[in-house]
Each structure stands twice: as C-alpha cells, then as structure tokens.
Predict the 3D structure of the following.
Amino acid sequence: MSNERQHRTRRVPLDIDALSGHVEIFRIDRSLENDSAVADWLHADEGELRSIAKQWFMEIRRCGDDVRETLHDGCPVACVGDAPFAYVNVFKNHVNVGFFYGAFLEDPARLLEGSGKRMRHVTVKRERQLDSPALTQLIRAAYLDLKARDPKAL
C-alpha cells in the first residue's frame, strides 16, 4: 500500500472561475452617496499628503452618478452599489490610489504596483512627478471594469 501511495500523481485543484474569467465580486454593504465619515477623513489633516489623497478621491467620485463611498479598513473607498472599485490611503511618505480589481486593468504607463491576486495600487509621492492623465485613465478604467464585471452595477 505504501508503494501505491508513492506512485500516485499529486492532484492540484484548479481555480475554474479564474480560468473562465469569472471573478467573485467583493461586497461592502454600507456605502452611501455622501458618507460623512469619508468627508471627515478627507478633511482630518490639511497636510500635503492628505491634500493629494483628497484630490484623487475627488477624481474617483467624478466617475459617475452611481459612485458611492464609505470608510473600509480605515480609508475612503468608492463603490458602485455595494461593490468597491477604488480607494485612497495616506502613509508616512506617500499616498496610495488603489484598485480592487487592478490586476485586470491595462496599464500602458506602468503605474500599477503590487502582486496580489486582484488588487493593485499606484504610489503617489510628493517629490516624484506623476503621470496624472495616466492615473485618471486608470481610475476611469477601474470604474468601467467593475460595471462590466458586476451585473448588479448596471
């Protein structure tokens, strides 16, 4: 019997959903048109980095009339319905503009960072010149990508 076990082929489970292009949509059940907690976060500190985060969150909000917002894991998140597509967060020396399904976005300017299964972010630093039109394009692409993925968002 031990010889039989040694000769068995090891089976590796396949991620059929990923192979077929289906991606499970993450949901947040408390997004609002104008969340006062997000407003408080954006105005909590008038430092340069918070100002950068605020600028990019305003750009995220402009994607469409159906964009909702909430605080999730301590930072402002933008959703379509209950499905998040983008966020901003401030760190000691930089701001992240993140995308919940960023791994699926085309990024010709190569701004996206990260190696997660789905999420990616763009690091915005005070001293580094950023390709603003390319980041704006990524934000719009993330919004449209989510709407295409999520039947509830249509």
About this structure: The chain has a mean pLDDT of 85.
